[in-house]
Amino acid sequence: MSNDPHAILLHPMVTEKTMRLMDETNSLEFLVRRTATKPQIKDAIERLFSCQVATVNTRITKDGKRAIIKFGGETSAEDIGMRIGVF
């Protein structure tokens, strides 16, 4: 698999639930390549957004693989969401 973050992260998921996640747990949800590992996802997010990732949780759905990224340190999920045009 390539090390290109854009090859790993397909696009952010924007739903009422993900908006609530952002407010309550400082997290964002992305649709990711099905073969991507948690360390690859974490690395891709940190490189793309110059931020700190606390945890990565993944699950497979009928739509594909989703990753919930919880940000750590000074990183605000809302700021990242603004940068990628979630709002």
List keywords for this structure.
single chain; 87 residues; alpha+beta; Alpha-Beta Plaits; 4-stranded antiparallel beta sheet
Question: Can you walk through the features of this model?
Answer:
This protein has 87 residues and is an alpha+beta fold. It has one domain (5-84): Alpha-Beta Plaits (2-Layer Sandwich), CATH 3.30.70. The chain has four helices and four strands, in the order H-E-H-E-H-E-E-H. It has a four-stranded antiparallel sheet with strand order 1-2-4-3.
Distance between the termini: 31 Å
The biggest beta sheet, please? 4 strands, antiparallel
**CATH topology call:** Alpha-Beta Plaits
Shape by Cα distribution = globular
CATH architecture assignment name: 2-Layer Sandwich
Q: Estimate percent helicity.
A: 25-40%
Biggest sheet strand line-up = 1-2-4-3
Count structural domains: 1
Task: Give the strand content.
Answer: 25-35%
User: Ranges with pLDDT <50 over ≥5 residues?
Assistant: none
Structural classification: alpha+beta
Q: Radius of gyration in whole Å, from Cα? A: 12 Å
Q: Regarding CATH, which class?
A: Alpha Beta
Query: What name goes with the CATH superfamily?
Result: RRM (RNA recognition motif) domain
- For the secondary structure, the number of strands is 4
Succession of helices and strands = HEHEHEEH
What is the arithmetic mean of pLDDT?
93
Structure annotation, total helices: 4
Give a quick precis of the structure.
The protein is of the alpha+beta class.
